[in-house]
């Protein structure tokens, strides 16, 4: 497992060994179905992170007060999803062994599958919060079950259908929709029950996966698969108090396609989201 050196996310320049929180780029987009290029997202977001402040007035905390490490991007075997899945599993196991809290930056949503596999192995009663525009419940996509369109199903098959909580979901294939209903998966196209679910799961370890297409493409247009509708930045900020009640053991932020972000706004937006997630999660 090798990380190659890249620019670092703003103020994330501490060494891995004594870091309070770690960022790790996972630059894989091999199963992207519409607009590829999320492999370039970690670096594009890092680059734009220098346009935002390190201080958050929402949380009254500053990145400068913590030891944060940005590992760079994992060296992945492009074009070989099986090998990537294995490698990401190994990477997650390494992070868990070293007791590091990590925000993984993708890359595409398939990457959540190997991450969840390892986190569920370590945390037996793991709950998963899944932000997305898409259901991601396809049995297979273009003939492969290793697909970003199957990420939620792969997750549910590992942690159990009762332990997956999906928000912002507004794009389904009919069979997916019927299957999710039949299996009683919790999903909604907004955040109406977010705080209620937080209360329900706050005593459990929680993994949070954030597909950036949960946001309205009006504010986040540079995506692999944009979908009209969705949440706004203020909705995200309003969730932070709820998120801070959770025992978040791992997180990912995925699916930005910088080639469709010519003005850089999507990556600036993502950088701010990541700053808030760091400050919300790093040991208080
Ligand atoms: Mn999606």
Report on this model:
There is one protein chain. The chain has 8 helices and 11 strands. The protein is of the alpha/beta class. It has one domain (3-279): Ureohydrolase domain (Arginase, Chain A, 3-Layer(aba) Sandwich). Manganese (II) ion (MN) binds at residues 132-134, 211, 213, 225, 255.
CATH class, please? Alpha Beta
* Shape label: globular
And the CATH topology? Arginase, Chain A
Radius of gyration: 17 Å
Provide the structure class: alpha/beta
In whole angstroms, how far apart are the ends?
30 Å
How much strand? 15-25%
Contiguous low-pLDDT stretches (5 residues minimum) are none
Quick recap:
With 284 residues, the protein is α/β, with parallel strands linked by helices. It has 8 helices and 11 strands.
Descriptive keywords:
single chain, 284 residues, alpha/beta, Arginase, Chain A, 9-stranded mixed beta sheet, two-stranded antiparallel ribbon, globular, binds manganese (II) ion
What secondary-structure arrangement, pairings included, does this model have?
Elements: E1 3-4, E2 21-26, H1 41-49, E3 55-56, E4 61-62, E5 68-74, H2 81-97, E6 102-106, H3 112-122, E7 127-131, H4 151-159, E8 164-167, H5 174-182, E9 186-188, H6 194-201, E10 205-211, H7 233-244, E11 247-254, H8 265-281
Parallel strand pairs: 2-5, 2-6, 6-11, 7-8, 7-10, 8-9, 10-11
Antiparallel strand pairs: 1-5, 3-4
Helix pairs in contact: 1-8, 2-3, 3-4, 7-8
Bound molecules: manganese (II) ion.
């Amino acid at each position: 497992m090798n990380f190659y050196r890249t620019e670092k996310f703003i103020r994330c320049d501490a060494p891995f060994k004594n870091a309070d929180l770690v960022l790790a780029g996972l630059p894989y987009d091999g199963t992207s179905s519409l607009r590829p290029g999320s492999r370039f997202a970690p670096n594009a977001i890092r680059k734009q992170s220098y346009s935002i402040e390190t201080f958050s007035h929402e949380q009254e905390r500053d990145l400068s007060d913590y030891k944060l490490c940005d590992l760079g991007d994992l060296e992945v075997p492009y074009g070989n999803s099986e090998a990537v899945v294995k490698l990401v599993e190994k990477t997650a196991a390494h992070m868990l062994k070293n007791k590091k809290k990590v925000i993984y930056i993708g890359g595409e949503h398939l990457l959540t599958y190997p991450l969840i596999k390892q986190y569920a192995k370590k945390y037996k009663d793991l709950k998963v919060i899944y932000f997305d525009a898409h259901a991601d419940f396809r049995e297979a996509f273009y003939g492969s079950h290793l697909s970003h369109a199957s990420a939620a199903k792969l997750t549910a098959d590992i942690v159990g259908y009762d332990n997956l909580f999906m928000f912002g979901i507004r794009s389904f294939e009919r069979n997916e929709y019927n299957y999710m209903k039949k299996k009683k998966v919790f999903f909604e196209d907004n955040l109406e029950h977010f705080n209620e679910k937080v209360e329900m799961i706050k005593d459990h370890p929680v993994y949070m996966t954030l597909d950036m297409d949960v946001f309205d493409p009006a504010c986040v247009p540079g995506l692999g698969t944009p979908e009209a509708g969705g949440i706004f930045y203020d909705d995200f900020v309003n969730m932070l108090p709820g998120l801070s009640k959770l025992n978040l053991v791992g997180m990912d932020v995925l699916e930005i396609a910088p080639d469709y972000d010519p003005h850089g706004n999507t990556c600036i937006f993502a950088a701010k989201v990541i700053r808030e997630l760091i400050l919300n999660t790093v040991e208080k």
